[in-house]
Design brief:
Elements (H helix, E strand, L loop, with lengths): L23 H18 L13 E6 L5 H12 L3 E6 L11 H9 L5 E6 L4 H8 L3 E7 L5 H15 L6 E5 L6 H12 L3 E5 L15 E3 L2 H5 L4 E4 L15 H8 L3 H7 L5 E3 L12 H4 L6 H18 L6 H31 L1
Parallel strand pairs: 1-2, 1-3, 3-4, 5-6, 5-8, 6-7, 8-9
Helix pairs in contact: 1-5, 1-11, 2-11, 3-4, 5-6, 5-11
Length: about 350
Amino acid sequence: MCADSSEIKGLKRKDLLGILELRREEIELILDTAISFKEILERPIRVVPYLRGKTVAFLFFEPSTRTLNSFNLAARRLSCDSVSVSASSSSILKGETLLDTAKNLEAMKLNFVVVRHSSPGASHILAKNLTSSVINAGDGSHEHPTQALLDLLTIKEHFAKFEGLKVLIVGDIEHSRVARSDIWGMKKLGMDVSVCGPPTLIPRDIEKMGVRVYYNLKEAIEGKDIIYVLRIQKERQAIGLFPSTREYIKLYSITEEVLEKYAKRDVVIMHPGPVNRGIEIAPSVADGTRSLILPQVTNGVAIRMACFYLLPGGEGREEGRVKREEGRGMRDEGRERREEGGERRDER
């Protein structure tokens, strides 16, 4: 790591369940630790032994590509063993509850449980009943804390500071756990946040979260530093909440034409994925020079490494520090022996 990891103190909480409950200092600790871990991802051999002997269980009961694989890679980079459980392959199909499934897995001596579930609060229930560190990988429309953290890391790398940045979140705010976590995190770090979308996709009383609401995209975009585009989540909508996809594209899609006419020249584009190209965002924008979408994906691995490392489930950090110090001592002793041998040859 860039800094000696033995100097990094862990989080004081057992679990990571949401951004709302994190203090600014905790968010900054996770971001700083992730920056240190990014150095590992640039090495030819991208594995360190910091969590060797630890085990994580992935309980993913919703489809996932980026989040599950990102967590999986993060665990492997830290030498952490893993097991995966999905709804289609678990005893839940036989009537077992989520909590029973988790408790049975924990009896196999887990250190972490990463859970994604369609029910808001599922991770909170597990956290109250398990001794393992629980990480919320998305619970219904409630929160998605590690997505917000990787978004904040991406913003920090691009802008260097948070205070005063103006962010516009566009799209399906009502059903977006990402929007909620991002708003909490961005506000805690001093950013100015606005939301924009059809009235039926804007939560009632969202202004109480400290955001400004727009319904006109062209008006909303003006002066913003970041445009964060959300996917239309049809799978979470019981009924059609706007007349047609064609109308949504006309009024709210982020296109080159809209950006050229109304946005700042140096505005950046973010998206949590998966991207519905040609609907909420034009392909040329998603792949363009303004886009930070792929850096977001890269930062996901570093953030999740930091979360594993900082939570109590990774309490073997002290052991790892001792081993590294022992390794440095052995290297120093070997160097001294080589120097002594060189001196003897010079005498001869």
